Amino acid sequence: MDKQPAVVFRNVGQLYFPQTRVECHYSLTSEHGWSSSDWIGIFQMGWSSVKHYHTYTWALVPEGYTEGTSVDHCAVFQGTN
What global pTM score does this model have? Predict the structure, then answer.
């Protein structure tokens, strides 16, 4: 049986513009274990290494989250000028 992913990204766009705000919606299954070094990045198409991110934001633990439960969350990337 295939193992289900611990993080599922929803409504992922195919194109983002640097000057626009981007909301990254995702679901965490009960299998996910939080780490203080968790982050979410935006990558250029064709990336081949996690070092090739365009920008990133820390994936903070949602307020009121209980370890071992599922949760929906959103990370926000602010637009740049």
Answer: 0.76
